[in-house]
Amino acid sequence: MSIFEYNGSALVAMVGKNCFAIASDRRLGVQLQTIATDFQKIYRIHNKLFIGLAGLATDAQTLYQRLVFRNKLYHLREERDMKPETFASLVSAVLYEKRFGPYFCQPVIAGLGDDDKPFICTMDSIGAKELAKDFVVAGTASESLYGACESMFKPDMEAEELFETISQALISAVDRDCLSGWGGHVYLVTPTEVTERILKGRMD
């Protein structure tokens, strides 16, 4: 078993019309044993920028603390919020610094940039970015997430339709992966508000 599969995870970010959604499952496991069913995998950097961390849970928490530190330094120096593109470059640099002993994490970054244009990207454990205009996925359920998102995604969805689509894609995908599941955690972000919702899994 790969170290990336040790705790299990499912992460997906999807863009809509001037909005985005980012969702994760809620399971924390040690291989096939479930430890917690309310584990946080998505973190708010500021109201228009979120990061989800799939992979080894201990590394995810350590990496998040480093990113919060770097973001606060940026805020003190620049006196403004970091743009999503800038934050993606920061995450990439932080990961690449440790390329010979990497954090076993696969980040998913989602934010609203200039003119409220949604930005999403993911990267591997040493910071190689993969940009997308529709959706990005990460974690042990990534293969089934690709399939579900490919079949459900439509361009320029309004916020509520986007929420419905990402939720259905996540719930469908985690049913096909025994290392992730136990419902979902969804953030829906528009230029004016952030909505957080908890999904119940099919077996909850």
UniProtKB/TrEMBL annotation:
InterPro entries, per database record: Ntn_hydrolases_N, Proteasome_beta_3, Proteasome_bsu_CS, Proteasome_sua/b, Proteasome_suB-type
Nucleus in keyword set: yes
Keywords for the protein's UniProt record, in alphabetical order: Cytoplasm, Nucleus, Proteasome
PROSITE patterns in alphabetical order: PROTEASOME_BETA_1, PROTEASOME_BETA_2
Superkingdom of the source species: Eukaryota
GO cellular component: cytoplasm; nucleus; proteasome core complex, beta-subunit complex
Subcellular location: Cytoplasm; Nucleus
GO terms for biological process, alphabetical: proteasome-mediated ubiquitin-dependent protein catabolic process
Main location: cytoplasm
Family membership: Belongs to the peptidase T1B family.
Functional summary from the UniProt entry: Component of the proteasome, a multicatalytic proteinase complex which is characterized by its ability to cleave peptides with Arg, Phe, Tyr, Leu, and Glu adjacent to the leaving group at neutral or slightly basic pH. The proteasome has an ATP-dependent proteolytic activity. Non-catalytic component of the proteasome, a multicatalytic proteinase complex which is characterized by its ability to cleave peptides with Arg, Phe, Tyr, Leu, and Glu adjacent to the leaving group at neutral or slightly basic pH. The proteasome has an ATP-dependent proteolytic activity.
Subunit (UniProt): Component of the proteasome complex.
Protein name: Proteasome subunit beta
